[in-house]
Amino acid sequence: MASKPEEPRFDGRGGKWIGASVRRREDPRLVTGRGRFVDDIHLHGMLHAGFVRATVAHGKITELDLSATREVDGVVAAYSAEDLQLGDMVALLDRPPEEFTPTTMPILARGKVRFVGEPIALVIAKDPYAVEDGIEAAQVSYEVLDAVVSEETALAEDAPLVHEDAPSNVLLDVTSFDTPGVDEAFADGCVIELVTRSGRQNALPLETRGAVASWDDRDEQLLVQTCSQVPHQVRTVLARSLRIPERSVRVVVPDMGGGFGQKCVVGREEIAVAAAAKLLRRPVKWIEDRSEALASGFLAREQRYRTRAAFTPAGQLTALESDIVCDMGAYSCYPFTVGIEPLMAAAEMPSVYRVPAYRVRARAITSNKAPTAPYRGVSRPQYVMVMERIMDLAARRLGLDPVEIRRRNVITEFPYTGINKVTYDPGSYLESLELGEKILRDEGWYERREQNPYLGIGFSCFSERTGYGSEAFAKRKMTVVPGFDVSEIRMDLTGSVVVTSGTINHGQSHETTFAQIVAERLGVDLAKVKLRQGDTERISYGWGTFASRSVTIGGSAVATAATRLGEQLCVIAAHLLDTRAENVGLDGDGGVIQLDDPHRRLSFEEIADVAYLRSHLLPKEAEPTLTATAAFDVPGDGTFSNATHAVVVEADPGTGQVKILRYACVEDCGVVINPKVVDGQARGGIAQGIAGALFEEVTYAENGEPSAASFIDYLVPTAAEIPDITVDHLETPCAFTESGAKGAGEGGTIGAPAAVLNAVNDLLWRTGVQLEQTPIHPEAVLAALAAADREKAGTGA
User: What is the pLDDT of residues 607-635, one digit of tens each?
Assistant: First the structure.
C-alpha cells in the first residue's frame, strides 16, 4: 500500500515550499546514469595523465631519469618539476614566525620527497595503459632519510626535519586562551584528566579526484573541468602557478560524487595536468585511482588531546585545560593552512557547556604523511569526544547520572558569549538532550542494560558552527579569508528563472533546496527554477561548499537576489496597472496582484513580455531586463546548529566486536528547508562518524609506509554495520540567515564518535578499563572483557 505523502510544513510566512519534503530534483538524472562526472568527459584528441610518485616517505631525490619513459610506445610526454617550471603553492596565516611557519608545496617534488605518493613527475600518453607503462619505466633514486611518523618522533630533540625551516617540526604553536581562574579551579575542584587520540582517516568520496584540461586557442583560455568544492580558488592557484591572467582560466565543475572537505583544497595534480594541456595544446585527463586516493590523497583527523577539567562536588564545570597536537602531514593545504584543525579545536572546544576558565595550547606538527585537508566536521568530532568523555568520567566520579551532569552544565540562556569569546545564537541544547534521553527511556533500553552486562548507553551533546562568515575566518588570521557568497537570478519570457550560486553541490541536493528557496520568495512553481553552479565564467565569485555554508550563506544570497527580482517585477507591474508600487504584491502563484483589487493581476509572463519585447512601455526607473544580483555574508561568529546523539551498543564477549543496536539523533538546524534532505545529511554524516569510531584508520610503518593500500586494509563500514537511525527535528530559527536555516552538513559526523565511545565505555565500566581512542578496536574491547571475566572467576564472584 502506498504511503501517504508527507504534508508540507510551513515556515510561519504562509509559504508552501519552505519545509516541504519535495523529491530531489537531481535524482532522476543521477540514478538513470545521465549524470556527467569528470571521468565521463571525452574530448577529441584527448590524452591521459598519470604521476610518478614517491616510493619512500622521506628522502632526497638523487636521480630522476625520464628518458626511458619518453621511449615507451604511446607516451607523448613526460615532465619533471624542472620541465614545467610551475609556481609553488604557499598557504599563509598572518601570524608572527614564532606562531606559524608556512610550507612551500611544489606542484611536482623538487630535490626532496616528504611522503609516500608525493608526485614527482607527470606522464602523458595516448591511453591509460601506456601511462602506467611510462610510470614504471621512470628511474628514480633516493637518499633515504629517517621518517617522522608520530608525535613522539616529530617532537623529539634529535628528530629528522620534514622542512628545514621548521626546526622543531612544529608549523603552528598558539596559546589561544589562558584566562584567569584556571589554576585556582584545579586546586580546589574534582579534577578529571584524560588523553584522547583519534586515528588518521581518508574522506573517501565515492568519486576520486580528477581533471580534464584543454586549451582553447580561439579564446586563449585554459578550460579545466574538475571535481572541486572550490572552483574559484582552483582558478586563482592555476593562474598564479602558470603565471597567466585569471581571465585565461575557466574552471567548470560537472556533477560531483562527494567531497566531504577533501576537495575544498587545491590539489597539485590538477595544476600539473592543466600545465601539460597548455603546453601540448591538447586535452589531457587525469583520474585518481583508488590506490592513489588511499595512500596519497588528502587525509585528516590524527589528533591528540591531553585535557584536564575541574568540577565542583555538585557537578559544575569550573575550568578546562587542554594541550592539542594535530598531525597535519607534510604540507599546509591551500588556502586553509595547517591551522584548520588546531585553531578550530582551540576556539570552539567548550562546545555547548558553560566553561568559566579556559586554557588551551594548540599545535600543528608536520610529518612524513600525506597532507591534511578539512574533513567533514574538522576537529569537532575530536574535541566533542573530549568534552563528552569528560562529562561521563566526571559523572562517574561524582555519582551523578551522565545526562544529569550535562543538564547542569549545558548553555540555556541565549545569546551566550563564552569564555572563548564566541557568541552562540539561540539553540535547543537542553531540549535536545532531554528528548534524546526520553527516547531511550521510553523504549526500555535502560532496563535492558540492567539485564545485559554487554550493553552500553552513550550520549553526546554538541553544537556545530555553520556558515562561517568573513569575520569568523578573519579571526584565524588567514591571508585568504573565505566568507561571502554571490547569487544572480534571471527571469525569461516564460516566467522561468535561472539562479546562480557560488556554492557547489556534491550530494547535498542544492538543485532542490535552492529551488525551494527561490520558489518561496518569488511564488513560482518549483519546476520553473533552474540552478547553475560550478562555472567560474558564469558565477562572478564564490567560496564553494564547506563548513555547512551552502544554505546559510549561499542560500541567503539566493533568497536576497530572488527578493530583489520580485521587487523589480512589482515596480513594472504597478506601472502597467496604473497604481502605486506599494499597492501591488507577489500573489504566490506566478504573478503580481493589485492589493486593493486582487482581480487585477499580471502574470510573470506578461511582465517579462513587456520587459524584453516592449520595453518602451516600461517605467523610466526600470531597465529592460529582469535580473538581480545579491551578495551575503554572515555577521559575527556565525550561527550554531546543535544536536544530541543517543546510542545503545552491544559488545560480543567472544570477539570484542561492537554492534550498534539503537541510534537516535535529535537535531536543530533552524528552519528546515527540506526535511528529507536534512535527514539524509544527518544519516550520512552519522555513518561517517560511526566509521571513524569503529573502523577507519590509516596507520604507518616506522619508515612511513602507509597501511591503507586497498579496502582490504582500510576498513569501510557497509550497510550491514550501519544501524537504522532516527532523526527528530527541533527548530530554533536563525536570526542571521534569510530563511532562518542553520547548517546541517556536518553534525552527524561530529556527534557520532563521542556517543559510540561513551556507549562502549559504559559497558566496559565494570572492567575498570576505559578506552580513549578511536577507532575502537575489537581487540581492546575483548581484552577488557576477558580481564574482567578472569578477575571475576578468580574471586569466585
Answer: 999 999 999 999 999 999 999 999 999 99
Please report the sign of the dihedral spanned by the C-alpha atoms of residue 506, residue 474, residue 373, residue 56. Answer: positive
Q: Which amino acid is at 109?
A: A
The three cell numbers of residue 447 are: 532496563
> How confident is the model at residue 632, as a pLDDT?
97
For residues 467 and 745, what is the distance between their CA atoms, to the nearest angstrom?
A: 11
Adjacency order of strands within the sheet including 221-226: 75-79, 119-125, 47-53, 284-287, 210-216, 221-226, 249-252
Average pLDDT over residues 628-646: 96
Q: How far is CA 2 from the centre of its chain?
A: 36
Residue 415: alpha-carbon gap to chain centroid? 26
pLDDT digits (tens, 9 = 90+) for 442-494: 999 999 999 999 999 999 999 999 999 999 999 999 999 999 999 999 999 99
Pairing of strands 119-125, 47-53: antiparallel
* 624 and 612 Cβ atoms separated by less than 8 Å: yes
CA triple 555-559-565, angle to 5 deg = 145
* Cα-based torsion angle of the residue sequence 682, 683, 687, 689 in order, rounded to the nearest 10 degrees: 20
The DSSP 8-state label assigned to residue 666 in this structure reads E
Residue 400, amino acid: L
Query: How many other C-beta atoms can be found within 10 angstroms of the C-beta atom of residue 203?
Result: 23
Q: What is the largest CA-CA distance in the chain?
A: 99
pTM of the model: 0.96
Q: Which of 205, 611, 203 is CA-nearest to residue 375?
A: 203
Task: Supply the pLDDT for residue 15.
Answer: 63
> What is the number of alpha carbons within 13 Å of residue 203 lying toward its C-beta?
28
Alpha helices in 412-527 (DSSP H): 429-442, 445-451, 470-474, 510-522
Closest CA to 252 of 226, 213, 286: 226
Spatial CA neighbour of 389 closest among 668, 744, 789, 764: 764
Whether 12 has a pLDDT exceeding 70, the answer reads no
Report the 10 Å Cβ neighbour count for 490: 18
One DSSP character per residue, 725-770 reads EEEEEE----SSSSSSB---SSHHHHHHHHHHHHHHHHHHGGGT--
CA distances in angstroms from 341 to 151, 377, 744, listed in the order given = 15, 10, 20
Q: How confident is the model at residue 709 (pLDDT cuts 50, 70, 90)?
A: confident
Q: Where are the alpha helices (DSSP H) in 109-176?
A: 128-137, 151-155
Tell me how far CA of residue 646 lies from CA of 377, 679, 752, in angstroms.
Answer: 19, 16, 9
Q: Is the pLDDT of residue 330 over 60?
A: yes
Q: How far apart are CA 778 and CA 783, in angstroms?
A: 8
Q: Cβ(54)–Cβ(120) under 8 Å?
A: yes
Cβ count near 582 (within 10 Å): 9
